[in-house]
Amino acid sequence: MRDVGGNSAAYYVGLGDIQREWNDLDGAERHLRRAVDLVSGALTVDADTVTHGYLSLARLEQARGLHTDARATLEEFANLARRRGFFPLLVARGEAARARLALL
Amino acid sequence: MARRIPYVANGALHVLEPSDGPKIAVGSPSWIGWLTDPATRSFSFQSSSATYTARKESRSRGGEYWAAYRRQSGRLRKAYLGKAEDLTLDRLNKAAAVLARSDDDIPADPSPDTTVQDARSARTDAATTVGPAATNDHARERPRQGTSGDPLLSTKLSVPAARPSLVARPYLNKRVDEGLKRKLTLLSAPPGFGKTTLLSAWTSDLSGGRPVAWLSLDPADNDPARFWRYFIVAVDRVHPGAGEAALELLCSPQAVPIEAVLTTLLNELVDLPTDSVLVLDDYHLIESGAIHEALIFLIEHLPSRLHLIITTRADPPLPLAKLRARGEVNELRAADLRFTSEEAATFLNQVMSLKLSAEDIAELEGRTEGWIAGLQMAALAMRNHADVAGFIAAFTGSNRYVVDYLAEEVLGRQPEEVQDFLLQTSILDRMCGPLCDAVTCRHSSQEILEYLEHANLFVISLDEERRWYRYHHLFADVLRQRLSRTHPDLVPALHKRASGWLEEEGLATEAIHHALAARDWERAVRLIEASGMAVVLGRQVQTMLGWIDELPEELVRERPVLCTIHAIALVFLNRPDAAEARLQQAERCLRGNPTTDEARAILGRAAVIRAAIARFSGDLERCVELARKALELLPETEATARERAAASTNVALAYQVSGDVTPVNERLLEEASVEFRASGAPIALLRSINFLARLRTLQGRLRAAAATYEEAPAWYQDGTQCGMLGGTARPTTWA
C-alpha cells in the first residue's frame, strides 16, 4: 500500500480498524501506528479521527494481551484530548474505554 | 514509516518492501503482473542517461497508463510511457534518453511514442510554477500570469556561480572533502571570510558529479513551513522524486509533525548510490527554535551517504560537542579560512593586478589578518591610488571599522551614476536588470550590474546565466546605512517601486515585503488579501503572522477579508479563540452592507472556518449546523467553489450525528463523491470518500468499506501536494 501522506490519517485509521476486525493484527498495527504518528502532532485534524485511531489501537493492544500498552495509549489520548479541548463526548469515549480496560 | 520506492536498474525491478524482495526481469510476466497490481503506484528508473520516476495514472475515461517524470533545471518534465504491457526495457530507456535532453534539444515535434511535456501542465497548476519555462529573458523566475502566493525562487536553490578569477585553495577543498566522512561540516566564521565562495568553488570542482543540493537562506525562511519546503525541494532537485512524499505530508491540511515529514524524506534517501551533499548557506539567519530542533532530528538520522554542510557567522544551537565526541562533525573556522601570505599576494597582484611590493603585501596582510573582505576592499580602494604605502598605513581597527572605512573609499571612487545605482538598489535582497531599472528609473541597469561584477564590486551572481545578483552582505549593509543617512526620504519610494515590479512579475511574497518596508499599508493589504490565502494554505503561517504584525491593528480590523485569512492562520496554530475574535471583527465590518455577494462570501467563509473549528474539536452537531449556514450564505461563484465543497462535505457528516447509516445517506455521499470528482475538488473528494467508507464500516459492510478507502490514494497527490516541486504552494483548503 502506498504511503499517501498526511491527509490520510482517516484512511489509515479506517483501514487499520477494519484489519483489526479481520484479525489481521500486524497489518492493523502498522496502519494504526502510522495514523497515530500523523495525528499526534497535527493540529488541524478531525477530533473524531484522532479518537477513533487511539481507541482502535488500544483495542488492538488489548487483543494482544498488552494491557499496559493499551492503558498508555488511552492515557496519551486523554492528555491529547485535554490539551486540544476536545468535545466532552469524545473525552467520555476515551474514559469509557479506560474503564472497560480497568475491569479486565 | 514511509515505503521505499521500488526501482529498476540493469533491466530488473528491485522491490524493497518486504525487505530484500525478489528481483523481477523487465518484460517478464511477473513484471506485467507487478505493474498491473492495484497496490503498485510508482517506481524509479535508473540508467546511465537519466534517472526518473514512473507513475501509474488514471484516465478520466477509465483505465490506467504510466508516465515518466524527471526534474531538470528546476522544471518537472513528463514523458508518456503507455500501458503496462508497453513498458519494455527499450521503452523505458527511450524515455530516459528523451528526458535527459536539455530544453534546447527537445524537438518541436517530439517522437510520438515518448511525448515530452512540461509536467506542470499535467500535474500542477501551471500558473503556480517557476523556472526556466518562464521565457521572460530578464526575469527567469517569473511565474506565469495569474499566480498568487509564493512561488519558489530558484535562485535560492542554485549554487552561486564561482568567479573565474578565484584564488585556488586546493587544501581547503580537501578540508571540505573530509566532511564526506562525517554527517556535518560546519563553516563558521564572521562575514567576509569566503565561506560561500569556498563552497561554490568546491562544488564546481566536483568532477565526479557528486550531487550537491544548495539552499541560500534569508530571514523569511524562519517560517518552518517555508524552510522545510525549500529544503525538501533542494533535495528533490538532486534526487528526483525523493521529496515528493515528504512534500505531500508537509502540505497536507492536517499540519503533520515535522519529524514525520523528515522521516519520510530520509527513508527515500537511505540507499543512495553515491555520497550526496546538502548545503545550507547563511544559517545564522535562522532564529526559529522549531527549525533548529527539527534540524537536530535530521542530523541524528542522516543516512550514511548524505552529508550536511552549514555556513554561518556564528555557531548554530546544535549539539556540536556531542557531534565532535562522535567524530561526526568537520569544522572550518576563521583561522582556517583566512588568506595565507601567499594567497594574499596572489589575490592582490594577480587577481586584482595591483603590482604591490612584498613589504606592502605583508603590511596589508598583517593589518587585515588575512580577512578576505578587508583585503578585497583595500585592493579596490587602492586602485589608481598614488600613495599605496601611505594608504596602507592609514587604516587600522576592527573589521567593522575597516569595512565601513573601505566601503566608503570604494564607493567614493565610483562614477556618480554608479554610486546612485549602488545606493538605490541596496534595498533589494536580490536583483536583476529590469528590477533595478524599475527601482532606479533608468534603462541601463543590466550594464551596470555586469560592470559591478567585472570590477569585483561585491556583487554575487546567483545563477549561471548571470541574471540575478545580490550584494555581498557586508557591502549591502554599508550601502543601506549610507542611503538612510543621505537620502532617508527616498527609501519608501524605492521600496514602493520594487514592490510594483515584483507584483507585476507575480512574485507576491517579495512584493509584500517591500510594500511593508515602504509602509504603504493600502498596497500591502491589497497584496496580502490577494495572495495571503495561498500563503496560509501553503502552511506558511508564521509568514502571514509576521505580515499582520507589521500592519497597523486598526487597519486589519477594518478589512474583513484580511480578518478571515488571519483567522485561518490562527486555526492552524490551534488558537480557536483568537480566530473567533477575528471572525467577529470581520462580521462587524459587514454589518452595514451584508447583502452583497462579496459580503455573503465573507460571512460564508466565516461559517466554514467555524465549522472546521467545531470538527477539529469533535463537536459534529455544531459543525453540520455551521456548514449548512455556510451553504446558505456562499454565493455560487467560481471563487467560492472550494468553500462550498468543504461545506458540503461537512454537511454530509450529519449521519455521524444522527447515527442514520441507511442507504439514503449513503447515496448522498456517493453523489457528493461523483460531484467532487467531476468538479476537481480533491480535498473534498478525499473527505467524502473517507466519510463514505466510514459509513459502510458502520453498516458492517467491511469489504465494501475497505474497497472504498482504497479509492483514496490515487487522489492524494492531487489533493495534498502543493505543486511545490515546480513552484508555489497551491491552495488546497482548510476545512
Overall body shape of chain A? globular
Number of helices, counting only DSSP H or I runs of 4 residues or more of chain B: 35
Return the CATH class of chain A. Mainly Alpha
Give the strand tally of chain B: 15
Number of domains of chain B: 5
Using the 3D structure, state the CATH architecture of the largest domain in chain B: 3-Layer(aba) Sandwich
CATH topology type of the largest domain in chain B: Rossmann fold
Largest sheet of chain A: none
Round the Cα radius of gyration of chain A to an integer and report it. Answer: 13 Å
Distance between the amino and carboxyl termini of chain B: 27 Å
Distance between the termini of chain A: 35 Å
The largest contact between protein chains, plus residue counts on each side, is: A-B, 37 and 53 residues
Description:
The complex is a heterodimer of chains A (104) and B (735). Helix content of chain A is 77%, strand content 0%. Chain A is an all-alpha fold. The radius of gyration of chain A is 13 Å and the shape is globular. The two termini of chain B are 27 Å apart. Chain B has 5 domains: 7-123, no CATH class; 168-337, P-loop containing nucleotide triphosphate hydrolases (Rossmann fold); 341-412; 416-488, Orthogonal Bundle (Arc Repressor Mutant, subunit A); 652-735. Chain B has 735 residues and is α/β, with parallel strands linked by helices. Chain B contains 35 helices and 15 strands. In chain B, strands 3-2-1-4-5-6-7-8 form an 8-stranded mixed sheet. In chain B, strands 10-11-12-9-13 form a 5-stranded parallel sheet, sandwiched between helices. A two-stranded antiparallel ribbon of chain B has the order 14-15. In chain B, a hairpin with a 7-residue loop joins strand 14 (459-461) and strand 15 (469-471). Chains A and B meet through helix 1, helix 2 and helix 3 of A and helix 7, helix 8, helix 28, helix 33 and helix 34 of B.
Characteristics:
heterodimer, A: 104 residues, mainly alpha, Serine Threonine Protein Phosphatase 5, Tetratricopeptide repeat, globular, disordered N terminus, B: 735 residues, alpha/beta, Rossmann fold, 5 domains, 8-stranded mixed beta sheet, 5-stranded parallel beta sheet, 52% helix, 10% strand
